[in-house]
Amino acid sequence: MNRTETMRLKKYLNDRFDTDQFTLDAGMQKDGSMEVHHKGEFLGVIYRDEDEGEVSYALNIAILEEDLPNAADASLI
Question: InterPro entries this protein is in (predicted)?
Answer without folding.
Answer: DUF3126
